[in-house]
Records
---
Amino acid sequence: MANLNKVMLIGNLTADPEVRTTPRGTSLTELRLAVNRVTGGPNEGERREETTFLDVTCWGRLGEIAAQYLSKGRPVFIEGRLQMDSWEDKQSGQKRSRIRIIAENMQLLAGGRDGAASPAPRAGNYSGNYSGGYRQGNGAPAGGSQAPAQNSAPMPMEEDDDIPF
């Protein structure tokens, strides 16, 4: 039986991104995301909103872009996978765990808490698919080795790109 570990979220950052570097020199950016869900209550016309707070980890260049262009309140689309972290609490000795999202693709969305769009990079994608997102990975086209659709926008010339990759 096949397995699938895929998460797609749209939410707002609850804090500015936190950038760290591993001992081997790889950059790591932590995001804290709030995702809202609006539901109807048992009575007609009643509306409830529940918020889920999630930890998102972005590695390498994807994390550098997140740190450069995201800030508290900014909406973002994250596509990634779930990962379970387990550790032993040093103070109590209890086993602890949490689930985090490892970002594999990120798309910056317009607007923020004040509704104004902050400066964002021109649309681009690590995979070579000109869809407006940034993909973590090996540069393979999104969805496998398929050629881009004929009506897709052309890739910007490297010298025209204002974001160094």
---
Amino acid sequence: MRSIIFAEDVITVASLHRNAGAGGVFLATACDFVVGSGDVVLNPHYKTLGLSGSEYHTFTLPKRVGEDMANKLLNECLPLSVKKAKEIGLVDEVIEGDYMQSLKHFCKKLIEDEDRYQDFLWEKEDFLIENESFIEQCKENELKVMHPEFWDEDSSFHKLRHDFVYKVCPLETPKRLKDKNA
């Protein structure tokens, strides 16, 4: 993830052609641009697996959507259409129709104007130099929280992971979904 965030000599583009959960969404947010197919559904949260998250998400998510929206996404644990994700700034471009052709066109447009391309890279490099210690502190804070989630025997992660891997069906609709449909 760090390699993507700190790739100051290239423009990075994430392509969400299929649905994505926490890791996939946060891998995408590490890139400079996020493009998604119009029918994609995102689940940008870890909480339902008993995890707080990682992958520099405490830096990349608020950078894209702001602190309040980041907290809302991480705590409400609701699915999000790629169209809604664009409205809130999580996704830069939604593609309907011929996805691969449109994705190629999007990427070509990013580099067509040599001056704009070079300016983007210089601004990116300056930003990364200026914010490197903050970005690394985000990662360190994430690791401090995650360590007990993985290694504490009483962590809810172990049971939730088991249920996920073995496709154990819940006995009732999760409260977070009931409240939205009430």
---
Amino acid sequence: MIVDFGTLSEGRKYKTMSNTIFPRPVAWISSEDEGVVNLAPFSYFTPLSSEPPLVVVSIAHKENGEHKDTFANILRHKRCTINLAHDGLIEALKHSAEELPHEVSETEHFGIETRRILDGYPPMVADAKCALFCRLVKTLDIGSDYEPLLLEIEQMYIDDERIDPKGHIHLENIGRVGMEFLVDAARVK
């Protein structure tokens, strides 16, 4: 079967891509503005380069065309923290996807504990085993409701227990397959 993307609706394109390009890692992004910590998950996220250490995350606009809080905060402050979630955090991650008013923190509203470990960056999710502390390099205008952010990893937190004696890192990050999450190679709704 040949799928002609030129004939598909935006929703059908998303469904086709999200069910075939998987598992997609989830960028659970902490951003901050005026003392309010925003925390939201995004699954259009991937590494792009190791030199320089770049990742890209694509964030769709709100239905009214405005930027989502995460995008606006990163654009304004040039910093974010990408938390990599494991299965023990999946319910909190799902809750944080709910759109709240700008002045309401998902971390406070849903009781998600955070900790600030590096000055100049938003706090990380306290129970995350890995977090990427990133600087905005630039946004990419691709002529759609999605606007990719090119981010450079400046610092990384890794739980000491996740590094073996040879320096290998062992994480159990959750991924996304369509509308489901992938945890330990098992799909979870």
